[in-house]
Write a sequence for this structure.
């Protein structure tokens, strides 16, 4: 199993979640975060030439846990939904995951990630 952490533009969050769901990935966690990459935030100048900066930019962090064989597909969906070709498109991090436990049933590993047959496909979320 792998944990996939994606830092993306806030404006791409809705499209990204839609594309993930269409591809069969309906379980993730989303968090609003602040951060910066190599550009170290943004710098602006007003008409008088006075500069000011925004050291941290708003981002969305999506966290997914998937089976090893699904990693490539998820990365493809995340990349396709978020690539603009401009600085700030985001990053995707892959983290090895030793185990997962479903609290309700004590199922472990792959079994803790599956079992969607008990959830209605018409669920509102």
């Amino acid at each position: 199993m792998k944990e996939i952490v994606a830092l993306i533009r806030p404006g791409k969050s809705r499209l990204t979640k839609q594309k993930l769901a269409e591809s069969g990935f309906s379980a993730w966690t989303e968090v609003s975060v602040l951060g910066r990459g190599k550009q170290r935030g943004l710098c602006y100048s007003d008409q008088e030439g006075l500069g000011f900066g925004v050291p941290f930019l708003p981002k969305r962090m999506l966290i997914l846990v998937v089976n090893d064989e699904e990693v490539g597909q998820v990365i493809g969906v995340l990349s396709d939904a978020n690539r603009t070709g401009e600085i700030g498109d985001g990053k995707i991090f892959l983290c090895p995951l030793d185990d997962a436990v479903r609290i309700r049933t004590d199922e472990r590993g792959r079994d803790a990630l599956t079992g969607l047959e008990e959830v209605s496909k018409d669920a509102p979320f």
The helical segments are 13-22, 71-82, 110-113. The chain has a mean pLDDT of 86. Strands lie at 2-8, 29-35, 42-45, 51-54, 57-66, 91-96.
